[in-house]
Design brief:
mainly alpha; 9 helices; 0% strand; flat
Length: 179
């Protein structure tokens, strides 16, 4: 999806390239081994490319092309019957952001362990990550979400991953984040 997004923003499409799907770590390793001309991956795997600039260069990241890569979703039925739990789920993300600010070492240890990195390695990777805070999430979900979703739907149609674009006005209940 990120590849399609970046190509689209630069007047191209996935029809202009040969796409091979690999897991994020494998994509970075294949690129470094010279098995492909380009790769899309994410932290911490992109740091392997960053650390070997003689083998390749990072041309764009989600810092250059902001888009939603990680989301948490609940079924409409769950949201309807468990509004407090949905709000608590959203709030837990913001609590995690607060912990990153108040105790970065503990946070980097925890997050690094999940991706098999030391706290220091994760801290180095985290310099290239952007975690949207409550205000940024609220702005996105109250103002930008429909435009983003419309473009995303068009790209997913173009890629053949969906058969019809969803109605973006009914696509999601963003109230746990936007209220």
């Amino acid at each position: 999806f990120m590849l399609a997004w970046v190509l689209n923003k630069n007047g191209m499409s996935t029809k202009d390239v040969t796409v091979v799907n690999l897991e994020p770590d494998a994509a970075a390793q294949a690129f470094l081994a010279g098995q492909n001309d380009a790769a899309v991956t994410y932290e911490p795997f992109i740091s392997a490319v960053r650390d070997k600039s003689d083998q390749g260069h990072i041309l764009a990241t989600t810092l250059d092309y902001p888009m939603v890569l990680d989301t948490v979703g609940c079924t409409p039925e769950f949201l309807k019957t468990n509004p407090d739990a949905a709000k608590a789920l959203a709030d837990s993300y913001f609590d995690a952001l607060d912990l990153i600010k108040s105790d970065p070492q503990k946070s980097y240890e925890t997050m690094g362990a999940d991706v098999k990195q030391s706290a220091k390695e994760f801290e180095d990777s985290a310099k290239y990550l952007k975690w949207a805070d409550r205000a940024e999430n609220k702005q996105f979900f109250t103002k930008e979400f429909q435009d983003f979703s419309k473009t995303a739907g068009e790209l997913l149609l173009q890629m053949g991953l969906i058969k019809e674009a969803p109605d973006v006005t009914t696509l999601a209940d963003t109230s746990p984040v936007s209220n």
